[in-house]
Every structure is written in structure tokens, then in C-alpha cells.
Amino acid sequence: MYSYRRWIGSNNVLIVVKISKICYNLKLDNSVSEVKEMLEKLKFLEEKYKDLSMKISDPEIINKRNEWQKYVKEHAEIEPIVMKYREYTTVSKQLDEAKEMLKEKLEDDFKDMVKEEIKELTEKKEKLTEELKLLLIPKDPNDEKNVIVEIRAGAGGDEAGIFAGDLLRMYTRYAERQGWKVEIMSSNEQGVGGFKEVIFMIKGKGAYSRLKYESGVHRVQRIPVTESGGRIHTSTATVAVLPEADDIDVQINPNDVRIDVFRSSGHGGQSVNTTDSAVRLTHIPTGIVVSCQDEKSQLKNKEKAFKILKARLYDKLQAEKNAEIAEARRSQVGTGDRSERIRTYNFPQGRVTDHRINMTIYKLDSFLDGDIDEIVDALITNDQAEKLKSVQ
Known about the structure:
Layout: E1 2-7, E2 13-19, H1 32-55, H2 59-62, H3 65-102, H4 108-136, E3 147-153, H5 158-178, E4 181-189, E5 195-203, H6 207-211, E6 216-222, E7 233-243, E8 250-252, E9 257-262, E10 278-283, E11 288-292, H7 298-324, H8 326-330, E12 341-346, E13 351-354, E14 359-361, H9 364-368, H10 373-390
Parallel strand pairs: 6-12
Antiparallel strand pairs: 1-2, 2-8, 3-5, 3-7, 4-5, 6-7, 9-10, 10-11, 12-13, 13-14
Helix pairs in contact: 1-3, 3-4
Subcellular location: Cytoplasm
GO molecular function: translation release factor activity, codon specific
Function: Peptide chain release factor 1 directs the termination of translation in response to the peptide chain termination codons UAG and UAA.
């Protein structure tokens, strides 16, 4: 692993993006030279894997916990590639042996058997080649992280807030289906049962890899609960999906953060409206402001606010980094442009349309109940296909 380092706002905030050094600059097509180049890199990875296997078993390195953890993580990252490469080399060897056998004088029945085996092994080798190409696509270093999801009501008044609540339920139900945990970080409710803004964390392995495609503008078309005339109304809500940032990713100088405390506003209850439990953080170099008031404890609100602040700072770095490679990003599925209208939920027709891949499904009710995998899988497949084209 190596790190992309960048200072944001002032020299007091360092953000580090960890980038996999594995398998960049590959031209992954089926020409002889390209496959040869790919196999050379895979051979290098296998040697690296052997070296890492020795290191993580070395008692001296085991005693150096941070160093050992770094090697264990890198070992785990390349293991699937190495295992697939070893399967590929085994099949290649079997195929070569079968082709050599065919050069010998064989009886017709036995020759037919060898030809059939060559056909099967050739197909298997081609399949393994494609699987290796996918494994060699540079990994998003954030894919395994938890996510912080921010949903805000957009155009449409009260109906937009109700729709924001619908999206919160959709992602909560999806997280439950995946066995992930959901924690509300901050919320600003509106009187008719929706949210002006709601921020929550989803904790689970691979959460970001599945949900990163949800960032953008979501549009709903339906007859609002608040509409008595039966007119179809169009409303929007924006969704931002941020990978959780840890202390390694973001280092914040406490002197750069102004902390204000104030009384929570809400529907009452112990400590609400009676004590200064709400917390507002202002990051002076960037002007980012985060408020949390959902917890009764000022300490817990402060802890949540700092998690959101770290995620937003980390996201700011990524946005700047992505702007530097905008041409490459435009060739891929949109995963972060919040001004992009990505999806329409049409109630009269019972359909969901994802505009990035021109995909429509007619199961709106189950989709809003968290059954979103069909579109998520299609987005991932499309993204992988575009990355394969763009890898040079």
C-alpha cells in the first residue's frame, strides 16, 4: 500500500488516502502481449504473497503489532488474486499437456476424448482470464468501510421531507437484509412526518462498496399525502454516501475546531430542551459545520459530530482528487456527483428508473422496502465494465 497525501484548508489538517499499488497501468485485452504483461504482474504478486506469508508468521514481526497488521491486510488483499492465478496456471499446464498428447499417434476414440478435454480446458482458461481481469481492477480503498449517509429534502416542500423519510426507511431495511447495523447520527424532523435532514451511519463490511452508487438526486412522482386535489407531484431529495474516516485517514488539529453547545430542540423528554446537550462543530479552515442533538449526552453528541466532520473532510479530499481525474471519472458510473439526478420513483406506474444505466424495474413497493440489489448489482457490473475499458 502507498498513500496519497493532501492538505486541506490549512497545514493543520492532513488527510491520507490509502491507495492499492497493485496492478495499475494494465492493458487487459486478449492479445498475446497484453496477456503476457498481465501474467508477469500476476507472477510478481505471487512472489509478493509468499514473502508476506513469511512475514506474518515471523515472531519478531508479530510482536510489532502495527507492522504485522499492515502485512496481514496486504496479504488478505492479494490472496484472492493469487489463488485465482494458481488455478489459472494449473489449467494452463493441463491444457498444454493435452495439446502435446494430441500430437502423438492415438486411437480415434482416445483422440476424441483429448479434443473434448482441450475444448473444456480452453473454455475454463478463458473464463479464468476474465475473472483475473476483474480481480486486477484497482480496488476502491474505501469499499470495506462503514458509511455515513446524509439525506436532505430538496424541491417539493413537505412532500420532499416525507420522501426523505421514505429513503431513510429504504436504506434501513436494506441494511437489515444485509445484517448491517444502523445508527442515527443527527436528524431534523418536520411536522408532517418527514425530515428536512437526517444523517445516519450504516456499520457493516462492504457497506460502502454497495451503497456508494446512491449519492445523487432522487426524484419521486406521486400524489402527495398533503395534496387534496389528487394531482401528481414531483419532489426530490439528495443523498450523500460518505465512507467513514478513521484517525489514519483524517487528522484534525483541535485548535481548528470551534465547539459550541446549546439546548436540544425536539419533542420533549428527559434532558431535551432542559440542558445544553446539543453540540455544534465548526471547522475553521474549511467552514464545515456539523450539529448533533439526538443524544441526551453532550459527550455522545460530540463524538458523533466529530465522526461526521471527519467523513466530510475525507469526502472533500476525494472530491478534489476526483476533479483531477475528471475525464476518467466521466467514463464511469456516477458515484458522487450530488447534482446528478440518478433515479426516479414513479408511484402511478409502480416503477423505479435508474437514469445512469437506463434501467427500469416495476416493483416499486419492494424496492422502497429495501429490495434494491437488482439495481445495485447492475450498477456494479456496469462500473466494472467501464473500468475494464479505461484501464491503460
